[in-house]
Specification:
globular; mainly alpha; Serine Threonine Protein Phosphatase 5, Tetratricopeptide repeat; 17 helices; single chain; 85% helix
Length: 330
């Protein structure tokens, strides 16, 4: 057996091991496998390893490490003409900036990702990411247009995993527009695809976000149960950021059920996660929930403090819809 053949077998084995570990939620083992690949003397294989390691580090909420891996991906991939990996790394970086509320940097990264490749599926992913940004900033018509364009691309090219992500995001958009039937339908379609693909992280994400629909319909106990299931998955995956987002929705469901003290405890846990990982959007949303609880418990001074904190963060993020709602509550 030649040295090249042996190296190829080792590469395939480490990639397979990393993928298996990811599916099992063992992100530490996945990171170790992909780190081995990233140290390959073959630059194309190393670029693949850096990218996969960046994704795992992002899932572990190790954002600075993830950004470093995405930068290493681009540097290595450019040398071997792997424009697809360059684009995917820019998309990965954009997602981290978006999660941190650094929206201008996110938009720039997504645009660069579109510029460096002609791959239609990668263009679709950038369109989807731009839709997420538009949704956060309150440009719902633009977001729906971007999601629709991305979904058409994914369906035409048989990328069902990416189509599921778009459906999930469309569910979030319909929820923002209080179109509960449409949101429920989108989440149900997304959940079926995620179940078929065994995507545990997105199953948890969809369960958490569908709890918003249930809360809006007054089904608070069912909404809370969705959050409990999602939290169990996120804990198994070691995803603190996912837990933080779900704790926010759990607090919302508990508030709706009148369990204000428990809701407050849950929301403070979410706030700690938001502060630790510098997730401004989550901090703003949790602060808004704590404002509602303080107001319901007739603690007006505390309510004013939480309202100001939420409003300042939403202003910083440029979230027009949330700003308008909080200003009308003043």
């Amino acid at each position: 057996m030649s040295a090249d053949t042996r190296e190829s077998q080792v590469y395939q084995a480490r990639i397979a091991a990393g993928e298996a570990a990811e599916r099992a939620g063992d992100l530490l083992s996945a990171a170790a496998a992909y780190r081995d690949v990233a140290e390959s003397p073959d630059p194309e294989r190393a670029a693949e390893g850096h990218f996969r390691l960046g994704v795992v580090e992002w899932r572990r909420s190790r954002f600075e490490d993830a950004l470093a891996e995405f930068a290493a991906t681009r540097e290595t991939a450019r040398r071997v003409g792997r424009d697809d990996l360059v684009a995917r790394a820019w998309n990965g970086e954009g997602t981290i900036h978006c999660q941190r509320g650094e929206f201008q940097q996110a938009r720039a990264a997504y645009q660069v990702a579109m510029d460096v490749t002609h791959d239609p599926v990668l263009h679709g992913r950038s369109l989807q990411n731009l839709g997420v940004l538009a949704n956060i900033e309150g440009n719902l018509a633009e977001a729906l247009q971007q999601y629709g364009r991305a979904r058409r691309v994914f369906r035409e090219h048989g990328d069902h995993a990416s189509e599921a992500l778009v459906l999930h995001n469309m569910g979030m958009l319909h929820a923002d527009r209080m179109e509960w039937d449409e949101a429920s339908d989108s989440y149900s379609q997304a959940l079926a695809l995620f179940e078929a693909n065994g995507n545990q992280a997105m199953i948890a994400n969809t369960l958490a976000n569908r709890s918003e629909v249930l809360s809006a319909r007054g089904l608070f106990a069912e909404a809370a149960q969705h959050c409990v299931m999602a939290l169990s998955i996120y804990t198994e995956l070691g995803d603190d950021v996912g837990r933080g987002e779900t704790l926010r929705w759990h607090g919302r469901a508990l508030r709706g059920a009148g369990e204000l003290e428990t809701a407050e405890t849950v929301l403070h846990q979410a706030l700690q996660i938001a502060g630790h990982y510098r997730i401004k959007l989550l901090e703003a949303e949790v602060s808004r929930e704590l404002f509602e609880i303080a107001r319901a418990r007739n603690r007006q001074s505390e309510a004013d403090t939480w309202r100001r904190r939420a409003l300042d963060l939403f202003v910083e993020l440029g979230a027009a819809r949330e700003i308008s709602a909080l200003q009308s509550d003043g």
